[in-house]
Automatic annotation (TrEMBL):
InterPro entries: SAM-dependent_MTases_sf, SAM_dep_MeTrfase_SAV2177_type. This is S-adenosyl methyltransferase. SUPFAM superfamilies: S-adenosyl-L-methionine-dependent methyltransferases. Gene3D superfamilies: Vaccinia Virus protein VP39. It comes from Phytohabitans rumicis.
Length: 270
């Protein structure tokens, strides 16, 4: 799928840039160019993508071990190693999983991977329009909102830079959740460590200019606000590598976890 006639004009997207960083093949020339430009400004981005993916895996294992049977993964990306249904279904074989992404390539690849899996599906959706996701017939077919659901927003909320859009969308998305539901969030931040403002600005400029998905980072307090009435479970909102670490995690930020530049947490609705 890389390059090829007619593909060069596609705008870069977050899903395909992330796929490039994780070593995937579902990315086009524009994605590779944007990915390399970001990499030149922020060389740790590949390790951050790996750490984010590892956090996702640990969070799903934690949830599945706690008995969570339903997952709504929003901004799920292009399928790669350690997909949510694979991790969850290892523990709960009939765990239900719905993948949602704004990028049609991510959705098509997910649908192909899930063919024949009665417990998992992928639909196109935009987290800024939560009702359309919740009411989607395929989502309703797989998930039962009268039972607890884990809603995942891993590495996606910073693609909704406008607070006036992001917070109300989250509230509406989590509104149908019954007690015992969970929300999983990871989000880029500038809190807690010295930041090179110029480097940050030029990186976000590339996202704005060269991709279909502009990005912005938020403070710890702003990220915590997304959890609403969900109570953060131990260890709270933590740097990616510090959220319930496992021996098999990537070693990238072991000594300086704040260099992962993303905070992550899991909340539970009491
Ligand atoms: C960095 S990737 C994260 C993938 C996956 N959640 C993970 O952590 O491995 C971000 C994903 O969010 C998707 N995305 C961006 N804005 C979105 C929106 N408004 N609604 C749904 N998905 C969105 C992108 O297409 C991309 O696939």
């Amino acid at each position: 799928m890389t390059g090829g006639p007619g593909t060069n004009q596609k705008p870069a997207t977050a899903a395909r840039i992330y796929d490039y960083y994780l070593g995937g093949i579902h990315n086009f020339t524009a994605d590779q160019e944007a990915a390399k430009a970001i990499l030149a400004k922020a060389p740790s981005i590949v390790a951050i993508a790996r750490a984010n993916r590892a956090f996702l895996g640990r969070a799903i294992r934690y949830l599945a071990d706690s008995g969570v049977r339903q997952y709504l993964d929003i901004g799920s990306g292009i399928p790669t190693e350690g997909n949510v249904h694979e991790v969850a279904q290892q523990v709960v074989p009939d765990a239900r999983v719905v993948y949602v992404d704004i990028d049609p390539v991510a959705v098509a690849e997910s649908q192909e991977l899930l063919e024949g899996n009665p417990y998992a599906t992928a639909v196109r959706g935009d987290l800024r329009e939560p009702e359309k996701i919740i009411e989607h017939p395929q989502v309703r077919k797989v998930l039962d909102f009268t039972q607890p659901v884990a809603v995942l927003l891993v590495g996606v909320l910073y693609f909704v830079p406008d607070d006036a859009e992001a917070y109300p969308a989250m509230e509406r998305l989590l509104a149908p959740c019954v007690p015992g539901s969970h929300v999983v969030i990871s989000h880029g931040t500038v809190d807690g460590e010295p930041v090179d403002e110029r480097q940050l600005q030029s990186t976000t400029d590339i996202w704005r200019r060269q991709t279909a998905t502009p990005l912005s980072v938020r403070s710890r307090a702003q990220i915590e606000r997304f959890f609403g009435g969900f109570e953060l479970i131990e260890p709270g909102l933590a740097w990616l590598p510090e959220w319930r670490p496992e021996p098999t995690d990537p070693a990238d930020f072991r000594d300086e976890p704040w260099r992962s530049r993303m905070l992550a947490g899991v909340g539970r609705l009491p």
